[in-house]
Automatic annotation (TrEMBL):
Places the protein is found: Cell membrane
GO cellular component: plasma membrane
Protein known as: YihY/virulence factor BrkB family protein
Keyword Cell membrane: yes
Highest taxon listed in the record's lineage: Bacteria
Matching InterPro entries: MFS_trans_sf, Virul_fac_BrkB
Major place of residence: membrane
PANTHER family (alphabetical): INNER MEMBRANE PROTEIN YHJD (PTHR30213)
Organism: Deinococcus irradiatisoli
Membrane topology, record value: Multi-pass membrane protein
Membrane spanning residue stretches: 30-54, 109-133, 153-172, 193-214, 226-250, 257-282, 342-362
Alphabetically ordered keywords of this record: Cell membrane, Membrane, Transmembrane, Transmembrane helix
Region (Disordered): 314-336
Length: 406
């Protein structure tokens, strides 16, 4: 058991060192900036899914449940002013969506417009997240349009699944909170049982989310065992960080000085802190994959950067050190030049004719001389010596009468 704790400590220590070397906080700030443009489409998806799950309830009930989703994501412990701003913002948002849903024709158009906007903005966020993870791993993605489309499709599907799971998580959390409170009240520890139950449910929910992120987004082929380890550690750190963020928001009230923009500032700050936790989990996954015996099937062009990074941290490189042999790419077939290149070549040939004529005239009158190499004649003794050396070495050759000077 002691060896396992030491192994975990060494893993986290190496991940923290890599986290600092890769400037992960700066990458987290960039992700927070790009995430702002995705809040609207993601909320549209959450409202749509919440309307399906909470069918039959009035708009205010849906707003209160969505406010609970946001507050739970922000740590579950926020000040009353922030809670009021969240409720007001979501109430206006749900009202506008409900007005669009009142007309069947507008309903279809609103859903289509929201899905297109969601695809463009949320997948752009996932492209930035993929770039940040590749920077942390020091790898280069495969170039090409197909790879970009693949990343956008994966990001779009992950946003849809994540949005649905968030609503399911909150519904399950409400049921679990009621159950654990009843059990806790029996023994006098209801509040503590609710916190523990919510934390365990969050870990169970976020582990596959982080594992799928580390498996499919970076430009490396990781094994599921490796990403499950990273996802589990990240989910534990994520739940603990959310509790710490909730306490910080409740006591420090960082958004109070921003007035009307306090809600946006707190959300931006939460995304920044959460992104740093996700990137630290990515570093944990990377360090774990560099352990001896953990082999990746990855091309050398992608792995050389990680080899150098592993060498700085004193880790065993898991990537091949010699690039694989690839057959040379065949040259493209020669094509006859078009009309434009043919005219240009003809013009150059015509312009070169006077130069050739002038050069011939100058050579004829003796103003320009052709350089000739001086000739050195070998003596009979030198020829005999050279011929004797050649015969001793079995070389069948004869020296010429004259050799050029060198």
């Amino acid at each position: 058991m002691k060896g396992k704790f030491k192994e975990l400590f060494d893993l986290l220590k190496a991940a923290a060192s890599a986290f600092g070397q890769d400037n992960a906080p700066r990458l987290a700030a960039a992700i927070a900036y790009y995430a702002i443009s995705s809040i609207g489409p993601i909320l549209f998806l959450v409202v749509t899914v919440a309307g399906i799950i909470f069918r039959g309830q009035d708009r205010q009930a849906v707003t209160n449940r969505l406010a609970g989703i946001v507050q739970n994501a922000l740590g579950g412990s926020t000040d009353s002013e922030f809670s009021s701003n969240i409720n007001q913002f979501l109430d206006q948002f749900v009202t506008s969506i409900s007005n669009q849903f009142s007309n069947p024709g507008a309903n279809t158009l609103a859903i289509f417009t929201g899905l297109v906007t969601l695809f463009l903005t949320s997948t752009g966020l996932f492209l930035q997240l993929q770039g940040a993870l590749n920077a942390l791993w020091d790898v280069k993605p495969k170039p090409g349009l197909l790879e970009m489309v693949r990343t956008r499709v994966i990001g779009f599907l992950m946003v849809i699944v994540f949005g649905a799971l968030v609503v399911g998580y909150v519904a399950g959390n409400a049921y679990l909170s009621t159950l654990t409170k009843q059990i806790g009240d029996t023994i006098g520890q209801g509040a503590n049982f609710v916190r523990v139950g919510s934390g365990l449910l969050a870990m169970l929910f976020f582990t596959p989310v982080f594992a799928a992120t580390y498996k499919w987004l970076p430009a490396v082929n990781l094994k599921w065992r490796q990403v499950w380890i990273g996802g589990a550690i990240t989910s534990v750190l994520f739940v603990l960080s959310q509790a710490a963020i909730g306490v910080y928001f409740a006591r420090a009230t960082p958004g109070s000085v921003y007035g009307a923009a306090s809600t946006l500032f707190i959300v931006l700050l939460w995304i920044y802190f959460s992104s740093m936790v996700v990137f630290f989990g990515a570093e944990v996954t990377w360090v774990y994959s560099q352990r001896p015996g953990e082999k990746e099937e990855i091309s050398a062009t992608e792995g050389q950067g990680s080899n150098a990074k592993a060498a700085k941290l004193g880790l065993h490189p898991a990537y091949p050190t010699h690039p694989p042999h690839h057959p040379p790419r065949p040259l493209p077939p020669l094509r006859p030049p078009g009309l434009g290149p043919a005219i240009a070549q003809a013009a150059l040939a015509v312009l070169a004719l006077p130069s050739v004529a002038v050069l011939g005239l100058l050579r004829a009158v003796g103003l320009v001389r052709t350089r000739r190499e001086p000739v050195r004649t070998l003596s009979t003794r030198q020829k005999a010596r050279a011929q004797r050396l050649w015969n001793q070495r079995g070389i069948q050759a004869h020296l010429p009468e004259e050799l050029p000077e060198r």
